[in-house]
Amino acid sequence: MDFDILEEKMIKSIDYLKEELANIRAGRANPAILNKVEVDYYGVATPLNQVGTISVPEARQILVTPWDRSMVIAVEKAIQKADLGVNPINDGNAIRLVFPELTEDRRRELSKQVKSLGEEAKVAIRNSRRDAMDEVKAKQKASEITEDDQKDYEDKIQKITDKYISNIESIISEKEKEIMEV
């Protein structure tokens, strides 16, 4: 039984969760919200961070400054198309994204979304555990390992699973706290 592969699968699940949570804005400007935005740069879909500078001059504002001034309109259209829930403001040289304060209802909605993403990650972890348990049972059936070894492996698999489930719960709790801050 290779526990490194099991942990690697679980780490990938947590990394994916962190990526998804980075896209949920919590009242503060977070440049990660623009990670999936692609600009039509001379006929090629190019990530936004490769056509300009992205900065956070204020807590609720993102400033996108294209290196090529002729790209300002293309950047504005790409951000509008991405449907981030905020309208870009074009000042001719750069694009500003001003994020409004979150309402209480929107905070609750985002909190539910965070919990849902957390559940999906937990399901992925449990699926990895199930696969590992099935592998151990198959090895025991094929007489490759003893029943005692099977029990030891299953205990170790469960401990690894518990560790990652706990990790997910703390990540989700932290994100909910961030969202609910006023």
- Rounded mean pLDDT score: 89
Q: Ends: how far apart?
A: 48 Å
Tally of helical runs: 4
Q: Summarize the amount of helix as a percent range.
A: 55-70%
Largest sheet: 4 strands, antiparallel
Number of strands: 6
Rg over CA atoms, rounded to whole Å, is: 22 Å
Query: What is the assembly state of the chains in this entry?
Result: single chain
Structural class: alpha+beta
Show the helix and strand layout.
Elements: H1 3-22, E1 38-41, E2 44-47, E3 52-58, E4 61-66, H2 72-82, E5 88-90, E6 95-98, H3 104-141, H4 147-180
Antiparallel strand pairs: 1-2, 3-4, 4-6, 5-6
Helix pairs in contact: 1-3, 1-4, 3-4
Structure write-up:
With 182 residues, this protein is of the alpha+beta class. It has helices spanning 3-22, 72-82, 104-141, 147-180, and strands spanning 38-41, 44-47, 52-58, 61-66, 88-90, 95-98. A hairpin with a 4-residue loop joins strand 5 (88-90) and strand 6 (95-98). Helix 1 packs parallel to helix 4.
